[in-house]
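Subgroup meeting minutes
Present: P.N., E.W., G.H.
Scribe: E.W.

1. P.N. recapped why we're keeping a running log of single-chain structure predictions: easier to compare across weeks, and new members can see raw inputs and outputs side by side.
2. G.H. added today's entry (415 aa).
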Amino acid sequence: MAIPRHTLPLLLYPFLLLIFSPQSFQQNQNIDPSDLEALLSIKNTLTELSPTSPFFSTWNLTAPDPCSSFSGVTCSLHRVTILSLGIYSFKLAGSLPTSISALTELTQLILSPGIVTGSIPPQLGQLTKLRVISLPNNRLTGTIPTSFSSLINLHTLDLSHNQLAGSIPPSLTELPNLKVLILASNSLTGYLPENVSAPLLHLDLKNNQLEGPLPTSMPSSLRYLSLSQNRMWGPLTNGFESLSELVFLDLSMNQLSGPIPAQLFFRPTLSSLFLQRNNLTGGLPRMANNKESSSYGPGSIVDLSHNFLSGELSTVFDGVESLFLNNNRLIGRVPEEYVKSVCSGSTRTLYLQQNYFTGISLEMGMVLPDSASLCLAYNCMVPPASMMTCPDSAGERLSRPVAQCSVFNRGSDKG
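Output recorded in log:
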């Protein structure tokens, strides 16, 4: 018996439904079905801020191969291994869904700067293959999940420039493979973890509300350390003796006190030292019969300004490219080596203003390089104004009142 033509679609409907059902569609994709479901959930919780060229425009069910066509998605053996949300400067809003935890083969989670809000899903701690978590420059709130202590393969964690609060989980600095930890510019509070045993190369915690003393020991592998703009107090501990690889150290704008450890001035690797705006006291070390050599040379910068350093200036900073010793209590004559260094161009910035120096070897007719910035204002001498390039904060007065100078330079060379 012939089947009426108008009944064919009805008879074929169950067969077509079977072919094009979501389950069969996913099976035809070159991606694990659970990963595809997680990606579509992520798409539903995030919104593009650039409608003219939306990031998620390639994330659709008609894509023959999501692994190769979805922007920011990289796969291996049909599983998502790298997820870069908002790459190529696409800004996203919304929140991070817990469904990311379904991507169990994920090794890298990267979120471009945007206005993503909400907390960091603690379920990320289940993704034990993660090596990189980078979520900077958004508006994430809440605390750093303690579940991150399970991420034994984590190499890089960057949560900087968000609105995270609470303390740093102690287990975070004990991860066995963590090399880069960047938590700068949040609202983190509390003391630093006592045990920093992770093999860190880069530790950046600046611009938070951390307090307390510095750790007594830190990993010898550290090359970059910044704790500036916090509420750290106490002395600069001897923990720096073990930091033989340190290149960059910034402890500025805290409440640190006491003397500066001499070993910081003789590190062969250290080229950037920022200790300004603390309560540091004591003098500067002297070179020991030319047997020691300063660690600073071309490209180096040292800023010890706005402290309470006293005594005479040694030649330990000779050759530093940018040297800021202003706003201290240094006395005596400025060593001739610094003048030669400025004249030769090896030192480009030398700020010595607002101290109690009594003299400097600047001869009449001496010409400084155009690139040089020299400031000697408000000391116990009358330097030639024509040779100085001072910031506005140095003030207009060239010399201190005589009464102040007699107190601080009693017994020193008045030259």
